[in-house]
Backbone:
């Protein structure tokens, strides 16, 4: 499976270059995403602009990936999801589990907001521990 990778200041954009994502590609998607958690820039934007169809196994894997990234204090945002993919996400009942934006620019905004939130929460946690 081929991907285009675009590294930005606070996140990396991963763009699958496949038109259809089938269940047998799930391991490839996970294997492409998870290593970013070990990099200095952990935040990942998965841009699905090239993808026209997606199967159920991949949608569940995306929801799991988002949870994994959040557990590791990193952002995972899916963007540029077409109508057919949105319908599949809705059918699989994961549309509300995904952090999804219409454009890559809006994904960048989400990453920035989550970075600020993590910084504030870290400061709050440190203050709370100091007062104990």
Residues:
């Amino acid at each position: 499976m081929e991907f285009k990778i675009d590294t930005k200041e606070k996140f990396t954009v991963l763009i699958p270059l496949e038109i259809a994502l089938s269940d047998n590609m799930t391991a490839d998607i996970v294997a492409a995403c998870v290593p970013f958690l070990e990099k200095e820039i952990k935040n990942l934007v998965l841009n699905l602009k090239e993808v026209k169809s997606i199967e159920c196994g991949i949608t569940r894997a995306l929801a799991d990936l988002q949870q994994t990234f959040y557990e590791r204090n990193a952002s995972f945002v899916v963007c540029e999801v077409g109508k057919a993919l949105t319908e599949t996400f809705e059918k699989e009942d994961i549309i509300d589990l995904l952090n999804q934006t219409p454009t890559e620019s809006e994904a960048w905004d989400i990453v920035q907001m989550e970075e600020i939130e993590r910084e504030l929460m870290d400061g709050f946690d440190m203050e709370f521990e100091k007062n104990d």
Summary: The domain at 3-131 is CATH 3.30.750.24 (Transcription Regulator spoIIAA). The mean pLDDT is 92.
